[in-house]
Amino acid sequence: MIHNIAVKLGKYMALISESDREREEILIYSVEILMNYLIWIVSLFVISMLLNILIPKLAAFSSVVVYTVTFIFIRRYFGGYHTKNSMICLMLSIVVPMIALFVRYHIDFNIFLLLLVYMISYIIGIKIGTIDNINKRLSKEEKSYFKTNGLKAIKIIFTINIIIYLFGFQEISDMMTLATIFGFVNLLFGT
Fold first, then answer.
1. pTM across the whole model
2. Where are the domains of the chain?
C-alpha cells in the first residue's frame, strides 16, 4: 500500500519536474522512505502518548524519544539488519522500542552493567565495523569512515550516558543502554 502511494506520488513529482526515468525511480524511493519514517514517528508518538496516559509512571514518550535517537545514532554509523519487506521493517521499528520500554521498566542498569554493555559494543564495533546492505554497497573508504565515526559515536553516547546516570536520571540512562544493546544486536543480525 505504501509502495503504491509512493509510486503514484513519485511519478507525479517526476512528471511535474520533467525528470527522466532514473530520477523518477529516486523520487519514488525517496517518497516511500519518507512515508515510512512519517508513519513510524507518528505511530511511536501516538503509542507512547497513550502509554503515558495509561501508565504515567512509565514516562513512555520521553523514554521512546531517547531510545529512538540513540538507536538511530548507532545505526547511522554501523548499519544493521534489513528486512525484505518495508512493512515488516516498520512493524519491528514500532514494536522493538516498546519492548525496550517494558524491559526498562523491569530492569535497572547499574554502573558496572553500563560499562560492560559499552565495552562489548565497542569491541563489536571494532571487530565487525560498518556493514552495508544489498541496496547500498559501501566502498572500503566509506566503511572505514563510518566505522571510525561510529566508534567515536559510541564514546560520545557512553560519556553522555554515564553523566546522565551519575546525575540520577536512571530511566534515560537505561533507555540509552537498551538502544545500544538493540543497536548492536541489530548489527549482528545484519552480518
1. 0.83
2. 1-54, 59-190
